[in-house]
Amino acid sequence: MENTENKTVTIFVISDSAGETASKLAAAIMAQFPSVDFSLYRKTFVKEENRLKEALEDAKRENAMVLHTIISKDLVKTALAFFEENAIYHFDILTSPIEEIERFTGVQRSGEAGALHHLNENYFNRIEAMEFAVKYDDGKDPRGFLEADVVLLGVSRTSKTPLSLFLANKNLKVANLPLIPEAHLPKELWEVDSSKIVGLTNDPDILNGIRKERMRAYGLPEDTSYSDIEKIRKELAYAAELYEKIGCVTINVASLSIEETAAMILSALHLEDHSYFTTEE
């Protein structure tokens, strides 16, 4: 790649499967340069040499750097030759660690593209966890608290639903309950082990801005009781008092992404991310 000032940085993700691994790496890289303009292209399910060559020619034409996850030794060889011939920056995410494991264990790779996405028991467990999160979202059925791996509590707009679905994708059954000072708390909440409960909170000013934006999105006046700063402070105080009474973990999501909050929950509750492993009874 040329080092040209004020030029958009183009990244090509080339994969023989869905390209999720390389795309996540690209996203992590781009996040480090908020002032830089990026253009990201995804070339996925590239399993034949002619498709690979087309993707490589496109990358060359766009003067791109290439992140690739290709398992076939022959396709990797073709790609490396092209990169060297055309002086294209590239990063092979899979080959080096796979070769090291082959060397260390004496076991050869399967060579199967997309092996991560097998429809195995682990996959169906994840689907079940996602269905669970939808069924027991927003306290629809408090009985779900007793079956959940994690119970999320929080006032409105503390990311309960997105977190429930994100954690479900890690094979965890998650139920959540919105906290409203005037509302009755379900008796099932007091039957749950407090080590499974996470109380979510936020900064009043940030929550005020989020709720105002929510009202605007609905085409309604932004200044309502829902977004009133004093009411928000009372809601948060009520939540904090409840969390202390329960004795649960509390996390302030004000400056956290969903991914960061989820990682903190896994760590605090000593849970493992089983999304890449088959569960064995």
From TrEMBL:
It is an enzyme of class 2 (transferase). It catalyses: N(tele)-phospho-L-histidyl/L-threonyl-[pyruvate, phosphate dikinase] + ADP = N(tele)-phospho-L-histidyl/O-phospho-L-threonyl-[pyruvate, phosphate dikinase] + AMP + H(+); N(tele)-phospho-L-histidyl/O-phospho-L-threonyl-[pyruvate, phosphate dikinase] + phosphate + H(+) = N(tele)-phospho-L-histidyl/L-threonyl-[pyruvate, phosphate dikinase] + diphosphate. The keyword Transcription does not apply. Its EC number is 2.7.11.32, 2.7.4.27. Keywords: Kinase, Nucleotide-binding, Serine/threonine-protein kinase, Transferase. Pfam families: Kinase-PPPase. InterPro entries: Kinase-pyrophosphorylase, P-loop_NTPase, PPDK_reg. One of its GO terms (molecular function) is kinase activity. ADP binds at residues 154-161. The keyword Cell inner membrane does not apply. Transmembrane segments: none annotated. Belongs to the pyruvate, phosphate/water dikinase regulatory protein family. PDRP subfamily. NCBIfam families: PRK05339.1. Bifunctional serine/threonine kinase and phosphorylase involved in the regulation of the pyruvate, phosphate dikinase (PPDK) by catalyzing its phosphorylation/dephosphorylation. This is Putative pyruvate, phosphate dikinase regulatory protein. It comes from Enterococcus larvae.
